[in-house]
Amino acid sequence: MSTEICCVCDTPIEGAVRALGTRRFCERHYEHLTKDRKGLWLATIAFIVALLLFVLAMQVVGPMLTPALTGGRLVAAGILLAVIPASLWLGVFYLQDRVEPEPKRYVLGVALLSALLASAIGQPLINGFFRVNEWASASLLLKVIAAVFIVGAIQEGLKYAAVRHTVFRSREFDERVDGIIYGSAAGLGYATMLNIQYVIGNGGVDLGIGTMRIVLAALAHASFAGVTGYFLGRAKFEAMGPLWLPAGVALAALLNGAVTVALGSISRPGLHAMPFNGVAVAALVAALTFAFLFRTLRRANQVVLSAASAPSPSAVTG
Q1: Mean pLDDT over the full length of the chain
Q2: What gap in Å lies between CA 76 and CA 64, rounded to an integer?
Q3: How far apart are CA 148 and CA 174, in angstroms?
Q4: How many CB atoms lie within 10 A of CB 68?
Q5: Phi–psi pair at 5, nearest 5 degrees
Q6: In 3D, which of 5, 27, 35, 9 has the Cα closest to residue 176?
Q7: Average pLDDT in the 276-290 region?
Q8: Is residue 182 within 8 Å of 225, Cβ to Cβ?
Q9: What is the pTM of this model?
Q10: H-helix or E-strand containing 49?
């Protein structure tokens, strides 16, 4: 008789064998898989609120600091602002998840890899090879096509790769919600690189207006990649079929393009015009997206636990 192997830790299962679809789990990892982590939703809300407070604070402080900073010091200040959203996310998340946090090196590694992919592959393809900025604004149709099928597809594909080909294979990726956590880290890494390029490319920015653009990008990219992370989390522990992960990336790319175009109509584009209403909409989109993802995972956990606790037909009829 062959010994069952846990699909997470790759060790022989002693005692009861837990199953989800075609996957087999040891007791410890099955418990992880079905654990309800309500605090993650609270941490996400705290992160979004912290970013909004950060924007409001910089609307007061930014206009006072910007005239005093010139040249390299203004660029350095802008770069510092660019890394604050990712730093806030890490801080809020680890305060909530102190009991059993994801390894910092993995979370940071995914974020850094996503940032490097953005710099080395993503933005060169979008701006250099496809030259989206040169033709996409000619009409609304072209803008939507470019936003979804080029910008969205490239950006979300690279964020997916940053998780799928690294931590996804790790034993630390041991519950479905980890997909959202690592996906968000990839999104924030990508957004941080975009924001750094934005600051450097403009030789520094007004700190008040620049902060709004930085936070808007962070909120948007974290929520887009969170969607892909949800699909990754389900795929690792359930038999979802060959089209599941491509569908997840495609949905994230569609959201990326649609939200980007919509925000462009709400917030006038350009270096000196990024009003707070665009940030507020991005915060609402992020909150609704994460609320839907966490709620869907909670329901999936409840279905699994209900099925596990239900009496077998033989027990009922016997």
Answers
A1: 85
A2: 16
A3: 32
A4: 9
A5: -115, 135
A6: 35
A7: 89
A8: no
A9: 0.88
A10: helix 39-65
